[in-house]
Design brief:
Layout (H helix, E strand, L loop, with lengths): L4 H11 L4 E4 L8 H11 L5 E4 L9 E3 L5 H8 L6 H9 L6 E2 L8 E4 L21 E2 L3 E5 L6 E5 L2 E3 L4 E4 L6 H11 L4 E7 L3 H7 L9 H9 L4 E4 L6 E3 L4 E15 L2 E2 L5 E2 L2 E13 L5 E3 L5 H22 L3 E5 L9 E6 L6 H12 L5 E6 L7 H11 L2 H4 E8 L12 E8 L15 H6 L2 H4 L6
Helix pairs in contact: 4-8, 6-7, 8-9
This protein binds flavin mononucleotide (FMN) and manganese (II) ion.
Amino acid sequence: MPKDLRSFIAELEKNSPQDVARVTKPVSPRYEMSAVLTHLEKRKRFPMLIFENTENSPAPVVINAQASRRLMSMALECRSEDLAHAFIERQSKPLPPVEMINAPVHEIVKTGDEIDLNQVPLLTHYDVNAAPYITAGIVVAADPDSGVRNTSYNRLMMAGQRELRIFMAVGRHLWTLHNRLERRNEPMPIAIVIGVHPLFSLGAQALTPSDEDEYAVIGGMMNEPLRLVRAKTVPILVPADAEMIIEGQIMPNVRRLEGPFGEFTGHAVAQDQRQVIEVTAITHREKYIFQDIHAGYTEHKLMGAVPREAALLKAVRQAVSTVKNVCMPVSGNCRFHAYISIAKRTPGQAKNAICAAFAADMLLKHVIVVDDDIDVFDEERVLWAVSNRFQADRGLVVIANAQGSELDPSAGPGGVNAKMGLDATKPLTGFPPELQVPDEVMKRVRLDDLLPDFAK
Ligand SMILES: Cc1cc2nc3c(=O)[nH]c(=O)nc-3n(C[C@H](O)[C@H](O)[C@H](O)COP(=O)(O)O)c2cc1C
Ligand SMILES: [Mn+2]
């Protein structure tokens, strides 16, 4: 069975049922699903949520398919602290896709006047959102000259039965492709993929050179070739096992209002003139599952962390070969903070790691480098290392006026912001050892013997 959203749900129900929660009562995609998720986020509970009964829609809605490192580590078949390492490993082994004639995603095909986005249960997350949005849509575009396919998540605002508006960050591959076509006044055909296995999602976000086919990267991530089928109205091959595909074209030299939209920072981005998609077909499985990613919540942050952590780990490894691990924590939206642990061998290496990190990821603002006895996933330990091992007069690096995220609410115009690196490693010699009870005694005196209730 190919890896798809359904196979992942089935696998989870079988191997880890506590990670799945089904809501059977009717819930509206307009704010109500968000309310359920908000209650859960406040309780720090992140099960994969299946809304079986979507108000006014035949399609169930899945949110949180990759809302924890645990869920993603089940998909990547690794320990949760090894996600970035496993990602690098699979990214290094791309697998070319295969083409098929028939596909589950073509069980229902709607074109022309049959197309109506109102029939799809798009969610409205926040009161400030201008309209319902597609948030789990992976946009596929083929380079018009080389044929190489690009994939990226882009928020898509519903603007009518057959119209979407898209946000493409400046300088990214999709924006660059569109820019090239727009100069020739040509539309850009695209396919929007909705409802996929978490490994598809992770592969689609891999940071790749623009001449690498991202379908092959996704195949590598899934450890099986992606099955493709010809789209109905655009010259693109699309994933056969997705739940839904929306085909269309980004119009050249057309801009209309998009936003406001509540983003990953927990703040809304303002309305602006952005690109427009004319939808030319909607295809889906007969009983399709709609997928959503709740903007600004844990899944949105964490799913973006793993591909970034992988790229960061690779880049820092080139500068400091003894790097042990990296973590982009949820507290920094999994974009703005990175914790990096290294086995320091020479006095200056923490600073080299800081330089490599900022060069690798434009969105990073704050990098903390710690020794390899600190677990980068344990934020309390990282801050403990800062409090004990960091001295601002020699460990602080500040870079003013660098490019950061346009979505950083405290950045200057265009996302220009400051970078801060903290060397929280101890000197190579002469630092007092950390306290410990003798090892031999720790092994001998056991909680399950003396306080069994506390041993679990
Ligand atoms: C849930 C989610 C939503 C995203 N939304 C957008 C978006 O609206 N616009 C955008 O440019 N990037 C967005 N991104 C980031 C891109 O998907 C990511 O940077 C991608 O790797 C860019 O690929 P590209 O350079 O190949 O175009 C989003 C990422 C995630 C995980
Ligand atoms: Mn790309």
